Amino acid sequence: MRKPEANAIALCPVCRQPMRPTSEKCPSCGAERHYGPRGLESAVCAFAGMVLLAALSTLLLPISLWTIMFAAIGLVAGFLFSHNRFSGDRWLK
What we know:
It is rod-shaped and about 65 Å long. The chain contains two helices and four strands, in the order βββααβ. It is 46% helix and 13% strand. The protein has one domain.
C-alpha cells in the first residue's frame, strides 16, 4: 500500500499510525470504524431491560399478565437504550 501524502494524513485513534482520513479500516492494526450498536450490545441491553422490569413487576405484583407486559416494555426500553448509548461512530478493534 502506498503511504498517504503528508497533507492527507490522519492518525488511527487506536494505534496512532498514519492512515487516510477517509479510511474505514486501519491498515496497521485492523481497527474498524463502526456506526451504532453492534448486535451483541443491542441483545444484551434488551435482555437486561426485559429481566429487570420483569423482576421489578414480580416484586410489586404476583406473576401475571402484567409481568409479561413489563417484560415486553423492558425489552423495547433496553433496545432503545442501546441505540442511544452506542449511537456515535466508534473505532473497534
